[in-house]
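Input structure tokens:
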């Protein structure tokens, strides 16, 4: 259906299925999908028999109106679980995590309610769904965006989990242990004022990673890792210390497709 249907999610009652953190109205159009699936980390596909996909606007509207929640219960989770998600314009906009054994569901706002999974078990018969996903490595946000454009041309493409690329890369500085540099904490506090002159505090991260080098040095020195921009790597100048081992960030994106 091409026409747009507006579904009012009544939030004052816990008997209606809905995400309290979403807008009070959900606009459904031809690009809206509701997907029920086992999570991708479940290699055994435990609840695959419940998988479904609904793409018809009128059926989606009816689905949301009729799916019921019970009373609120303490938060809990199962592994594996089952998921119901809203996908719009190739984005997974909302996730409900269902605990079939505990008979509960955690909504997007972090609240958990009693839930009868029998409400959704029949959808697989009318709207069966199988999917797969693939990971793709990217060296830059631009490379990811180019790939995403191509994926959207594929009629089987559903949505993706994009790489974050919060930091351009990382580098290391080694500190010999001394009274001045007695721990990773004191070293971090030493570094902050220097790096703050180059970049905002939320634009970089200083950390101590227990990698092979730090294990081998056994506390005789501390190699700190700085994640941030290449500008920090090139501009940070501290007497008797050396910026080393710049590495550009490489991240992966996860792309989901129907079979």
């Amino acid at each position: 259906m091409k026409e747009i249907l507006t579904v009012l999610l009544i939030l004052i009652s816990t008997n209606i299925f809905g995400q309290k953190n979403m807008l009070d109205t959900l606009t459904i159009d031809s690009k809206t999908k509701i997907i029920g699936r086992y999570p991708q980390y479940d290699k055994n596909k435990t609840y695959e028999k419940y998988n479904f996909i609904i793409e018809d606007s009128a059926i989606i509207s009816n689905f949301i109106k009729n799916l019921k929640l019970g009373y609120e219960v303490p938060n809990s989770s199962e592994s594996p679980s089952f998921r119901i998600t809203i996908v719009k314009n190739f984005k997974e906009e909302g996730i409900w995590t269902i605990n079939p054994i505990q008979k509960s569901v955690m909504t997007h706002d972090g609240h958990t309610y009693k839930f009868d999974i029998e409400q959704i078990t029949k959808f697989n018969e009318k709207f069966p769904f199988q999917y797969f996903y693939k990971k793709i490595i990217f060296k830059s946000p631009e490379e990811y965006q180019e790939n995403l454009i191509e994926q959207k041309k594929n009629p089987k493409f559903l949505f993706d989990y994009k790489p974050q690329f919060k930091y351009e890369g990382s580098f290391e500085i080694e500190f010999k242990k001394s009274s001045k540099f007695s721990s990773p904490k004191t070293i971090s506090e030493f570094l902050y004022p220097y790096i703050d002159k180059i970049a905002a505090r939320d634009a970089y991260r200083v950390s101590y990673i227990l990698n092979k080098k730090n294990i081998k040095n056994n506390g005789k020195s501390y190699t700190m890792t700085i994640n941030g921009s290449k500008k920090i790597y090139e501009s940070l100048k501290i007497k008797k210390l050396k910026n080393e081992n710049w590495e550009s960030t490489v991240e992966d994106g996860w792309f989901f497709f129907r079979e």
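The chain has a mean pLDDT of 87. The first helix runs from residue 57 to 66.
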